[in-house]
Each structure stands twice: as C-alpha cells, then as structure tokens.
Amino acid sequence: MATFMAPENAEAKQAVADAATEVAAEVTKAPLPPVETAHPWAMPTAASTFAEDTDALYYFITALDTVFFVIIMGAMGYFMWKYRRRSKDQKTSSITHSGIVEFLWSAIPTVLLLVIFVWGECDFVKQSVPPADALDVRVTGQKWYWTVEYPKYPGVSLSSSTEEPALTLMVPKDKPVRLTMTSTDVIHSFYVPAFRVKRDVVPGRYTQIWFQATRVGEFNLFCTEYCGDLHSQMTGVVKVLEPDNFERALIAAGILEKEDGESLAAYGERVYRRRGCAACHSVEGKDGIGPAWNGLYGRTESLTDGTTVKADDEYIKNSIYEPNSQIVAGYSPQMPSYQGLLDEEQVTAVIEYIKTLK
Ligand code: HEC
Ligand SMILES: [Cu+2]
C-alpha cells in the first residue's frame, strides 16, 4: 500500500492528486453496497466488533423477559382459575406468608440482575477504552451538520449537510478508529446503529467513542439529540473502505482546494456544498434558516438594528466571519462564525459564486 506523504514539490503533489482522482473515479463507479437492513423486526446491520456482544446481551435480556413473562402470567391465570369463588357465601381463607417463596423471589432476580450488570459492565469498559493505535478523527457537530477532520491528514475535511449527506465519515475496515467529538452550539448526539455506538456531543467539552468496522459499505449516521428545526435532517453516511483504498480515497474526497482550471465561482459552489452552507441557505429563492442567496449580491439589506447596507464583497465577507455583527432583518443570529474555517480564497470563491446567482 502506498503511504501518503506531505507532497514536497509540485510534481509529488500532482502525483497524489492524480492517484486521488483515479481512486475517486473507481469509488464512484462502483458505489459501495448499501448494506443496512430495513426489516422492522430485525436488529440493525452488524458492522463493527461491538455488534455481536451488544446484540448477545440484548437477546439474553429479551429471552429472560419472555421466560418470566410466561411463568408469571401463566401462574396468575392458573391461580385465578384454581382459586376462583365457587359460591356466593364462600369466605377467603386466611393465609399468612411463605418464607421460602419470598426468599426465592428476591434471590433469583438479584442473581439475574447481577449477571446482567457484570456482563454490561464488561462490554461498557471494552467500549470505553480505545486501543492506543487507533486512527484519530475529530468530529464537530453544529446545527445541522457534521464536520470531520483527520489530524493524520492535514487539510482533509469531510462534512455532511442537509443537501449532500454523502460524505460524512470515511474509515478503513478492520482498524480501530477513535472519534473525539465536540459541538459548537447545542448538544448533539452521534449515533451509528450498525456499529452500536452512540454518544452525546456537547459544547465546551470533548467526548470520545471508538469502534472497529468489520464490513465494507455505507452505513447511516444519525443525530439523536433534539437540536432544533432541522434536527431530523442531521443525518449522514459512514463509508467503510478496504484499508488499501482508504487513504487515497479519503484524500480524494476530503481535500477542498481550488483545482487547476476551475473557476472561482465553481470552487465557491463546492465550498457552499461541502462546508455546510447548504444546510441553511438555498440558492433558488426558498428562504430557510438563513436568507436565500440568489439576487443577494448588490441588493440593499435591511438589518435588525434598523440600518440598511449594500450587499457588496465586504458585507458578505463580514457576514461569514462575523455573522452576528450584522443580522438581516427577519432572521435570528443562528449562523456560526467561519473565522478560521474558511480561508480568504474560499470566501472570495463564495462571493464569486453568489454573484452568479440571479
Ligand atoms: C445554521 C444555519 C447557517 C449556516 C450553516 C450558514 N448560515 Fe449564513 N446565515 C444564517 C442566518 C440565520 C443568516 C441571517 C442572519 C445573519 O445575518 O446573521 C445568515 C446570513 C448569511 C449571509 C448574509 C445574507 C444576506 O441576505 O444578507 C451570508 C453572506 C451568509 N450567511 C453566508 C454563509 C456561508 C458562506 C455559509 C457556509 C460557509 C453559511 N452562511 C452557513 C444561517 C446560516
Ligand atoms: Cu443535532
């Protein structure tokens, strides 16, 4: 497997780019099998090393519940029938209690609950401690999309938005992956049913999960903490790839740089789709959480403080880096700042893109 190195000169960089395009083409040509089961009675697809253990405990508890349900309901029915009132003047006999029966109905459940506790605790400890050689991934939740970065591959970043939920997270098969997660606004929760992992993503705090995928394919990602208007659309796709393809495919998918010969406006459109703007801004006139972008450039905006401003380059740039300094009338300050997330070239590209939207 070719190892990725920081390209030192233009040639090496070009070679990486070529390899990346090649793999990207392969990956798109043969889309990964969607392997999620849709059957309402089945467990979610099992695609990580945790799935079997988690399911085993689940089945154990369900079986135990079923057995006791049958025993208890059966005994109740039987006694109702056996001790039914037989004549109008029949008196209830006076019964006190049975020490043995009371001991058993306390002791047996105690033992069973302890079995469930120890079993669950062992799984919990295993799932809480990532192996030291795990691949590090940074996950940021914000309204209403995920951004994913790989410290080992600087400059590579993926994100889901409500428009394009296709590329949220890419991981290699059979390698442990550790996610360090935080949120920039409210509490979200990162949930991949096929991996049986779920954890809250909390502003001002880091939470961690890890997993090791066992199957190649595409799996659903959900936010499972109610986080506002578009919570139900805060979904994504986790792609598991063969370890040999992973590195090159990730780089191909994750680098957001202007390509040679690409126009600034086209690059700006990619920024719009890949950096989450599409979650709140439409380009066809439908106002969403934020104002639609078509016709924006050059028009006169009314702000909440009663002033007006012409939507020129400076205003748009300011809206991106310091969105709360000038709030468009009729909107609430919901936009996160992109200071440090978009560089000057990307902002310029977005402006060029907005200019093309009539
Ligand atoms: C969470 C929703 C959200 C996301 C994501 C978001 N915005 Fe916004 N945006 C808003 C809201 C709400 C406003 C209006 C209030 C304000 O001016 O801050 C706005 C306003 C703007 C404006 C001014 C629009 C006008 O009509 O004057 C620009 C430009 C803008 N956003 C650019 C962006 C860019 C670029 C991105 C992505 C890199 C982005 N926004 C991502 C919610 C969002
Ligand atoms: Cu959320």
SSE map:
Elements: H1 10-29, H2 51-82, H3 99-128, E1 135-142, E2 145-149, E3 157-159, E4 169-172, E5 176-183, E6 188-192, E7 197-201, E8 207-212, E9 217-223, E10 235-241, H4 243-254, H5 264-274, E11 300-302, E12 308-310, H6 313-321, H7 344-355
Parallel strand pairs: 1-5, 4-10
Antiparallel strand pairs: 1-2, 2-3, 5-8, 6-7, 6-9, 9-10, 11-12
Helix pairs in contact: 1-4, 2-3, 5-7
This protein binds heme C and copper (II) ion.
Copper (II) ion binds next to loops.
Describe the structure.
The protein has 358 residues and is an alpha+beta fold. It has 2 domains: 173 residues, Cupredoxins -  blue copper proteins (Immunoglobulin-like, Sandwich); 92 residues, Cytochrome Bc1 Complex, Chain D, domain 2, CATH 1.10.760. The protein is built from 7 helices and 12 strands. The strands form 3 sheets. A 5-stranded mixed β-sheet has the order 3-2-1-5-8, with no helix packed on it. β11 and β12 form a beta hairpin. The protein is elongated, with a radius of gyration of 28 Å. The two termini are 47 Å apart. The N terminus is likely disordered. Copper (II) ion binds next to loops.
